[in-house]
Amino acid sequence: MDEEYDVIVLGTGLKECILSGLLSVDGLKVLHMDKNNYYGGESSSLNLIQLWKRFRGEEQPPENLGASREYNVDMIPKFMMANGTLVRVLIHANVTKYLNFKAVDGSFVYNKGKIHKVPATDVEALKSPLMGLFEKRRARKFFVFVQDFNESDPKTHHGMDLSTITARQLISKYELEDHTIDFIGHALALHFSDEYLDKPALTFVKRMKLYAESLARFQSGSPYIYPMYGLGELPQAFARLSAVYGGTYMLNKPDCKVEYEDGVVVGVTSEGETAKCKKVVCDPSYLPDKAEKVGKVARAVIIMSHPIPDTHESHSAQVIIPQKQLGRKSDMYLFCCSYYHNVAPKGKYIAFVLTEAETDDPEAELKPGVDLLGPVDEIFYETYDRYKPTNDCDSDHCYISMSYDPSTHFESTVEDVLAMYNKITGKVIDLSVDLSAASAGEQ
Predict the structure, then answer these.
(1) Whole-number Å distance between alpha carbons of 73 and 364
(2) Closest by alpha carbon to 235, among 113, 106, 401?
(3) Per the confidence metrics, is the pTM higher than 0.85?
(4) Which keywords are on file for this protein (predicted)?
(5) Is 15:39 a contact under the CB 8 Å cutoff?
(6) CA 73, CA 229: separation in Å to the nearest integer?
(7) How far apart are CA 400 and CA 242, in angstroms?
(8) In the chain, what are the helix, strand and coil shares in percent, each to the nearest 5?
(9) I want to staple 291 with a disulfide (CB 3.0 to 4.6 A). Which of 169, 250, 284, 331 is the partner?
């Protein structure tokens, strides 16, 4: 281990593995270490015995749940937008050859006490029971504007500068009702809270377009795709990529201590050996003194024997409950996957209910989401703290990722990765890739 590296990466969470792979491809000498003896860190994927050990200690799982090895329960469950940034990164890095994807069956929103399919186009808006007749016409006009909008073609801007007017101002021109704004902002543009309404409308419109483009890609009922055998495959795919380009991996390295000279990182020590480096990349757990708590996520992990009710028998689905529907400050998310994606034995479904915690009682706080699931076989509750870095990475050369938010999609996760890559290398990744290159792995 007594060598010198350009970058030492600590932790094998998804963000760290993506960066390790990309930096190795760039020709940097990378050492990747983890204090755990498994890949994935916070974003690991657990079999049934591991899941039981985490939540129930020495108890054994009941036999009627099936074989432990047939479970791949993702601790940070997120779907991928079919046209989204993570898919572009996967293609850019050429790791799609290590992965197989299937489309996700359904995308839904909770509105006025019921679960509805999310309408994403002007045609779907006209059919949706979410809106009355006159509201459908207004919504259709808005959807047409978004579909036709092209940032580089002023004719499609209708005389508006979306980089200066707010999302609220744009929406007001179409006189949409609050319930409509609710599902458009949260279930289509995938904003966590209503803060987006007072920010420039351009991001809001781009996020709506991404949803519609992703939906059109597979015509599957949702804009999302998900790897066979769960998300645990993703960190390992990037780990393989790093290894192909000369990266070195060391799992089960306890007490990784970052070493400094004059406040600048110079290496990492573990088990009495020090590896020298110019930069360190890690999650907040490795450098807690350089991060601050910014929130807490409450989640329920559920095993059940049926799909989420009212989701058209979807084997895999996302349901978003916008904050206003429950009188909350942030949205609640329902995530469901099953044997269809090889994450559970036949007939079994894995569901999650997640939200930004606003109390210290996850069971009571998550009850509105859990109640939508119907009967469950097993349920586990927990919370985890979210952190963001506070250090000046230009000064100390420590590049720390942000903790995962409670959303059930990957866009904000990848934004953090790309921002970190830019800080580490000074470069911007060209993601104008041929998306058809991913189709070989899709089913």
Answers:
(1) 23
(2) 401
(3) yes
(4) GTPase activation
(5) no
(6) 9
(7) 19
(8) 40, 25, 35
(9) 284
